[in-house]
Each structure stands twice: as C-alpha cells, then as structure tokens.
RNA sequence: CGGUAAGUUGAACAAUUGGUUGGUUCGCCAGACUGUAAAUCUGGUCUCUUCGGAGCUUGGAGGUUCGAAUCCUUCCUUGCCGA
C-alpha cells in the first residue's frame, strides 16, 4: 500500500462519548500504518483511567498512543499545553513515516490542531484569577467593557470563566484581547485533513452509555479508582472540577448521594455531555459522518491516495 | 363498606389559608464556546402567534363570591386507617 510520503496528512476521528472512537481508530491505524494522538481533556491525566475511558494497553494492540498520561491531575491542564504537545506528536509521527490519527471527543482540543487556532500567549495568573473570581459577572463585564470594549461586545457576559480570562489577558498585556486567528502560524506544517465523525442514533448511544457504565462499575473498579486518586491527594473539589464520573463518584464517596443516584446521574450527565459535544461538532461542516468501519476505511483509503 | 388525606406540570414541590399563579428545582429541546472545555455559560419548555402579543388552564360537573388552585356539593381516581 502506498502510504509513504504521506506527510502532512492528518486523519481526525471524533464523536460523542461512547460512540466507539477507540475501537475504530485502532482498527484504522493498524490497517493504514498509523499512530494515535489522543484529543481528550481527561485522558491526559495520569491515574484517570477507567472514569475517563482510557484505552488499555491490550486494546492498543501495539499501536502507539500519544498524549495519554502526560499531566498530573492535581494541576490544571489546558488547551495551549495540549496544542503544543499534540503538534509535537504529530510531527514525530510524520517523521516516522506513519499516519497520524487525531482521536477524541474534546472539541476545543481538536480545533486547536485542526484550525491551528492562535491562543493568546498569556499564562493563567492564579492570584489575579482568585481576586477576579470574587467579583460578580456584572462587575467583571463592566470592567471588561472599560478595558476592551471590542471583546466585551462578543463575549458571553454571563460566563465568569470567559470574563476572568479576558480581563486577565488585557491586564497582563495592556492590550485588547487579540482576535482569534484560524490561519495559524506560517512555520507550522499545513496539514491536509480528513475529519471523520462517528454517528449514533440517540437511542443507540443511550444504550452504549448504559452498558459502558455498568462495565465500569463492575467489581467497584471505578469507585476504587476514584478512592485511590483521592487518597493520593486529589481533593474532592478537584474531582468535582474534573466532572462527570469523577464528580458523581466523589459525591457518592462523600455520602452526598446514594449509589443509585450516582449511577443515574452519570448516565444522565453523560447523555447531556454527548449533546454538548454534538452541538460543537455540528458547526464544522468539514466533518464527514460515518457509522461503520467500512465507510471510514473507504474514506481514509481515498484520502491517502490523493 | 365506613373514616381520612390528597389530585396543578414530563417529574417533585410552591402560590400572603379567597386577590386573579405558570414560580422554583430536575428533566427535556436548542444554542454558545479566544489557556479550567467531561469545565463554564445562554435561551426555550400550557396553546396559538405576523414575536408585538393573544388565548386557555389547577381530576370532572355544578355552586358561593366583585373575585376560586384555594370555600361548598357531588362524582371519579389514588394513598392511608378501620371493618
């Protein structure tokens, strides 16, 4: 198969949680001499395995995976760090004459690579944030209006996180928040990109989520994982921040909810999460949606030929 | 069969014990996304709508009243207690 000299090609496999990204990507990577770069905001953390749905060594079937376990869950990881590491990984894969498969469900992370967005190069200032977070969103918004009326115009004026970040940028640069650039930096390789999305009927997805949750709960595996990382120093607060299964299990461990409630919440919230993911993905008309391996294989084959 | 408490919504609760509700929470639907993105946030959710509004509602039927989800009568349904 003619897959050498295929540098600067990138294949993206995306889809909502539980849709089967892992299985599909490994099958494709095997078939087309690829390696996987994960695009998942939780799987980057060491120790978050079962709850984040991380691939197991066995499942990898010899396919190398990048961007797993690259961060300590005690510290916040961010898109910018992700972008940097992912670019490096892709470059390396290309160098090895393999096909990079960018696989994951974190839309923002995917976009940071696919669109090569330029994110203001200002590190989070935790001290400043702590101060800003004391203010109400109204106060923050008024503040931003004064500091950067342009950004204030399109920002979500109710979203404290965005407001704090915007103010942070202006305060540390003394300049308005730069516009997002989708053009990317000239030194970055320009990829030819194929984006494949996995579609599932809502009914099917619901079933998959349920099944997967039951499997994770078996033998207390997921509960024990959360117990373990909590013992290792991850506060309940941090677990709450990590979201979904980590938040729900933490609540259960704190006796705030019953086991049954925990299970129900995880299922409901997972479903809600898939909807948010789809809202994000729907915007991108470049994504080609498939439901079977065969369809995906055809697309990849064609893509690598041209 | 007798006694008793209740019936609003997709679900659970509210509505100065007569003052003209569609309120809260959850769910559901849609959406946003400039270094936390599984996070964070927005809108809608009785009906119709030309998006300015208009109409209809508290198990059913009747009644009292200027005015009823609230009071009365009766029927239906459900829970509990007793036979």
What Rg, in angstroms, do the CA atoms define? 21 Å
Helix-strand pattern: EHEHEHEHHHHHEHHHHHEH
The portion of residues forming beta strands comes to 5-15%
| Average pLDDT for all residues | 92
Shape: globular
SS content category: alpha/beta
Oligomer classification? single chain
Query: What's the arrangement of strands in the largest beta sheet?
Result: 3-2-4-1-5-6
* CATH topology-level fold name of the largest domain: Rossmann fold
Helical fraction? 40-55%
Query: Helix count, per DSSP?
Result: 14
Low-confidence regions: 1-6, 184-188
Q: What is the tally of beta strands?
A: 6
The N- to C-terminal Cα distance equals: 13 Å
CATH classification class of the largest domain: Alpha Beta
Record the SSE blueprint.
Blueprint: E1 9-14, H1 21-31, E2 34-38, H2 57-60, E3 65-66, H3 79-95, E4 99-104, H4 107-114, H5 126-132, H6 137-147, H7 149-154, H8 160-173, E5 192-198, H9 202-217, H10 221-231, H11 236-242, H12 244-253, H13 259-282, E6 288-290, H14 293-305
Helix pairs in contact: 3-4, 6-8, 9-13, 10-12, 11-12, 12-13
The protein binds one RNA strand of 83 nucleotides through helix 3, helix 4, helix 8, helix 12 and helix 13.
Question: Which features does this protein show?
Answer:
306 residues, alpha/beta, Rossmann fold, Helix Hairpins, 3 domains, globular, disordered N terminus, RNA-binding
Notes on the protein architecture:
The protein has 306 residues and is of the alpha/beta class. It has helices at residues 21-31, 57-60, 79-95, 107-114, 126-132, 137-147, 149-154, 160-173, 202-217, 221-231, 236-242, 244-253, 259-282, 293-305; strands at residues 9-14, 34-38, 65-66, 99-104, 192-198, 288-290. Helix 12 (244-253) runs antiparallel to helix 13 (259-282). The structure holds one RNA strand of 83 nucleotides.
